[in-house]
Amino acid sequence: MTDTNHALTGLDSVDWTALQHAYGPADDVPAQLCALCSPDPAERHKALDDLYGNIFHQGSRYPATAAAVPFLARMAADPALPGTPETLELLASLAIGYDESHLPGGVAIADWRREVEEFLARDPEEIGAELDAWVEAAADEGERRSRDFRRSLFDHDRQCESAQAELGAYDAVRRELPGLLPLLADAEPAVRAATAYLLAWFPEEAGETLPPLLRLLDAEREPVVLATALVAAGLLGDGELVGRLRAFLTARELVVRWAAATALARLGAAGAADAVSVEVLTELAAVEDEAPGTGALRVLFHEGDLRGCAAASLVLLADRFPDEALDAVTGALAGTSGPASFPVAEAALRLAFGAPGQGGVGAFEELGERQRRLVRVLAGLGTQTWQWVNLLSLVRSWGLPTPRDALRAYAGLPEEQEAAQERRAGAAGRGFTGP
After folding, report:
1. What is the pLDDT of residues 310-339, one digit of tens each?
2. Which domains can be identified in the chain, with CATH numbers?
3. DSSP for 245-275?
4. What does pTM read for this prediction?
């Protein structure tokens, strides 16, 4: 293979067949990286889709992932090549997986490194014994079967490889940041936004990346770019930034106010700034659109689901504003459907009942008024939303009854007419009669 530009220099020197991705040897990756440099948008789109499918398969990373990173970084930094924002987004995904697992607090990299080190050092038999005990501790037979299935999928060697590949990909992207930092000054707003988003996930590099992000706050006029820089600064900085970020809570654009409130919630802002943050996040949570006012250029955090991100940020303020936060998130949940319900439901359950896995929540009549309201809102979500196993798993994690009809019965809600008709029809078909 002949290198077509500087970005692909050294591509032939990598033994891609010795590296694995989701589908086996990574010998198809070089052609996909070359296609990503194509002037043809359709060819680039296919290459990007292929790379998301093999070196980032459903969020997983592989030995081939880190090997692709230097080439992708040089592509992003080359002004002669198209598709820079998309390449930067891919780099962020390769580094951290799905960002929702790191929001609203940011990448806890010290914990991540320690957990990987401890896992790699553990005795596989000891881990297996713990998993066996976890299966046996299931509350009922259904839960035991579910745990037993998950236990059967555990492969120690594969888990070790996965842990090393994920952290290896993160560090591979981290090493490329100095060459990508100048893109914060790119003429294209989408490039500036994607660069700020990428920088947000590397707290160990904050000494180099935070100052230019803060300078961007003074110069940026595009609301989405400004919002992205605000959230990034909040994820990388500390309490000393509170005064700097507070002024943006009164910005004209809702997306900028959301970003400032999100950053301040993460920084643990005290006093009046917290109260205003709650007001802004509540305002955002009540908006039906996922990314209000962003137009074609969308906020990348949480895939543009600002309502879900606002709900998660309100959890951070619950120690000082527990009632206001729960009221806001419960109200937001009532206006959601489908996958958009999942992050809001999780935030609401945390606000109402604390961490999951504490056992059952008790009788409905024993719950507080706000807890009862949340249960009724959950039970009132549509059947199409309840068809998702994601919601079922969330609700079950807090010990609440599932599926939907069981939760409605728990909350004392009337049986819906359609469900009652189906039940009567089924009984009649079996030769029974009833009310």
Report:
1. 999 999 988 889 999 999 999 999 989 999
2. 1-173 (no CATH), 186-317 (1.25.10.10)
3. HHGGGG-SSHHHHHHHHHHHHHHT--THHHH
4. 0.88
